[in-house]
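Final report, closing paragraph on structural work. Over the funding period we assembled a curated collection of sequence-structure pairs, and we close with a single example.
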Amino acid sequence: ANANKLLFRFLNFGNDELDIHIASVNGGTLRNAIPREAFAVVMVPEDRQQAFLEAVKKYEKIFQTEYNQTEPDLKFTAEKTQKPERILNPSGQTRLIKSVYGCPNGVIRMSDSVPGLVETSTNLAVARTEKGGAIVQCLLRSSVDSAKEDVGQMIRSVFELAGAEVKLEGGYPGWKPNPDSAILKTMKNVYKNMFGKEPEVKAVHAGLECGLIGGIYPNMDMISCGPTIRHPHSPDEKVHIPSVDKFWKFLLETLKNIPQK
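Its predicted structure, as stored:
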């Protein structure tokens, strides 16, 4: 679950029904990571405090029910804190909440050519208030450049309606799977000869340097491989150490078997 989307889903309810006043929001840290935590400091009228706490419990149950398979430890709580020095103006607060809440997020389209593979997605990675405004960052990924550009324009439209300045930058080209790749065929043969079994070849939905290289050298045959990594782009990221040695030997053997041109 995207913590920013869950938080702003609740804030949208609080803004419409409980007359909350936002002092600050801080969700997500990195553009290429799905936010695991998001926080907001809000002021609630005294006669709405009990309703606010009940709403928090209600939404926690809703979130836990919706994400019981993927987020078994999900928590959504509220606690008292010191009175903030300032709050957002009502108009700015509503525009921020509505735009972030309405911002596209997650899988946009699945691949037509590779069953089960995500073609296009977007991640609402960062949402935080700063003195004088707010910053929202999204990361778009797609193996089809035109689809990525389309999602970028969708996001631009949402935030420009809220009066925000929008910049589309830091993108990189998509990299379409090539099942007829010569280097893939060579590496499959090497792997089978070394380890006595067929390798598991997958197309993945991720940002890779191959997309950038392929954008400059469109005829270059490329493959992405490496040791076993778990939970990438998160505080729990780790590498399976024994697989590093296995991969190194496999890489050396592959280089020996690449045909000379």
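The chain has seven helices and seven strands. The chain has a mean pLDDT of 92. We thank the funder for supporting this effort.
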